[in-house]
Amino acid sequence: MVSRFLDDSGRPGLGRLIERAGVYPAGRLDADSEGLLLLTDDGALQARISHPRHKLPKTYLVQVEGTVSAAELAKLCAGVALRDGPARALAAQAVPPPSLWPRQPPVRERRQIPDSWLELVIAEGRNRQVRRMTAAVGLPTLRLVRTRVGPWALEGLAPGEWRELSLAQSWAMLGSAAGIRSRRAAKPGQQASRTGRASGPRR
Fold it and tell me: By CB count within 10 A, which of 6, 37, 160, 177 is most buried?
């Protein structure tokens, strides 16, 4: 599904999972990616999460075609050249195959070519960035699952599930208690009804 509630081309969107009006994605996932997506009804929080200048780290589990080597992990951390400029991982490491929900449709399998998993942390969110980075070091991405955005993590959420947090909790998790206090002073009547949301795994 797409990271919108409605899609002009008729593709399924977030309305199938979230029945609450007035919340919007803070960032997005490609339609063929899975994992954590944050939603909020607070514009300032949405900007704090999604604007590139804040460089909020995002963690992904990536299944790639081929065997991950130390040299390829080093290249990802040193930086690779993409069409829209260089990109580098904050961290990259090989990991054992994780225990995940079945993917629909399943990833392609090629018996002659092995696959492996890595965990990748980036601070940007360019279009299909992780897929392009792994391809640049000769490791095409087969499956991509976002497990963390800043302080928010996927643990405990099954596909399609979501968890609600208060606005105060969300800002506190970002270490921005001072910011929420000043905004509450400006709009004391509105803040009590605003929430920060985290949706569960999705495609």
Answer: 37
